[in-house]
């Protein structure tokens, strides 16, 4: 990396650090010390250290690349608390339910359809935890991280589509909602690709075909 690229990278890091309440001079010293270590000293296996930053889309993601080969790991935090995001009684009631839910990407407005036999707020926190710790273990987290899109508080991005309890009926209802949103071209690509691979001959396609096919006359 040339000096111009390093200076640009440093300015981005300083900007994010200051927005998170960190001292500019301290971050600059840490950066130069890290660059010196990467140049002169082989990196040994050390105990991992975690640093937390407020998630801010693509700029925040650049930080993770800087610390890729070090013992420092970056965790993202959201700019809201549980008390703020559960600010409506009606919302609290729905997020305490289990069933079929929808998560919306705040940037592209595409959606992820999921199902859970636990409280929706529990499942929401799992999706957000995957984003914060850079894990692609959910299609929604994969979408946010890979495309550097924005997510939001539960009251803005999560919706209970239908109350249901864990079991075969929930599975059918969940599959139907995925089918509906797939046909309307609203699914995030990460879930759409899985749908195309796993359900190429969906029972709902067959049902729709039967309904729309006029009866034959003898």
Automatic annotation (TrEMBL):
Residues 96-188 form the GIY-YIG domain. This is GIY-YIG domain-containing protein. It comes from the Eukaryota.
